[in-house]
Amino acid sequence: MIDILRRRFGLLGRNISYSFSKGYFTEKFKDEVFEGNSYENFDISEINYFTELVKNNPDLKGLNVTIPYKEQVIPFLDKLSKKAALIGAVNTIKFTKNGKLKGYNTDYYGFKKSLKPLLKEHHKKALILGTGGASKGVAFALDELDILYTFVSREAKENIIDYDLINATTFDNFQIIINCTPVGTSPNIEASPNLPYEFFTEKHIAYDLIYNPEETTFLKKAKANGAVIKNGYDMLIFQAEKAWKIWNK
Fold first, then answer.
1. Which of 55, 170, 211, 247 could form a disulfide with 62 if both were Cys (CB 3.0 to 4.6 A apart)?
2. What parts of the chain have a pLDDT lower than 70?
3. What is the 3-state secondary structure (H, E, C) of 141-156?
4. Which helix (H) or strand (E) holds 139?
């Protein structure tokens, strides 16, 4: 039986007072089964403070990782899971029994599990808005679902289009639009990605990784034109529970 007493976990990120993870795990640990477990935010201004954080907290057993450190933390880790290495981003760190740090990605798992029930036969291609660490997990999940995708960013680069290229034809060809950017989060909840929303239809899925507000402006505009909408709340729950299994295996 796993000894679950007196263990510390936390979230690594910057400006993370809004954190889903802290609230979720704190609530989870209220159950007497998890007595002795604790979860806290480790808000650091730059990734170089990570080494000091680990050194000063030798009783840590696991960390979640959020913006902007999902890619930056990798050089500080001893090992990556096969999927984290392929994805190129880490959102879960396990402190192993021999003191090593191993990185995993559970974002792709949470996204895949939450998107799958919405998929229909005509959902063949996706636009991924944003190119940060979260978008890499999304892309990996789409690969596993055999859904083709294209990245969208403010500047066109190799294999990335910019927002100005998106038009009615784009919406005909891409039936899933996924917001992996922070546009629409508090305090700028009126903001939304620069899209021609009038081309959304009932055949489209609009998925926003943001969960607060529950219905972002991106989702509201897509919904107004008939799209099926989904926020990131279920994804976060699925990835959190996957992280908990990793920390305990």
1. 247
2. 1-5
3. HHHHCCCEEEEEECCC
4. helix 133-144
Active site residues: 70
CATH architecture of the domain covering 7-104: 3-Layer(aba) Sandwich (3.40)
Long-range contacts of 115-119, Cβ-Cβ distance < 8 Å, separation of 24 or more: 115/141, 115/145, 115/176, 115/205, 115/207, 115/230, 116/145, 118/205, 118/228, 118/230, 119/145, 119/147, 119/205
Residue linked to tokens 């096969």: 82
| Cα–Cα distance, 49 to 47 (Å, whole number) | 5
SS3 call for 64: strand
Residue span(s) of the chain under CATH 3.40.50.10860 come to 7-104
The predicted-structure confidence for 189-204, as pLDDT tens digits, reads as follows 999 999 999 999 999 9
Q: What is the CA 3 to chain-centroid distance, rounded?
A: 29
Q: What pLDDT is recorded for position 4?
A: 46
What's the pTM?
A: 0.92
Whether 74 and 19 have beta carbons less than 8 Å apart is answered as no
Q: In what order do the strands lie in the sheet with 160-162?
A: 160-162, 148-153, 125-129, 176-179, 205-208, 228-230
CATH homologous superfamily, domain 108-234: NAD(P)-binding Rossmann-like Domain (3.40.50.720)
Residue at token pair 């990185």? 103
**For 217-238, how does the pLDDT look when each residue is reduced to its tens digit (9 = 90+)?**
999 999 999 999 999 999 999 9
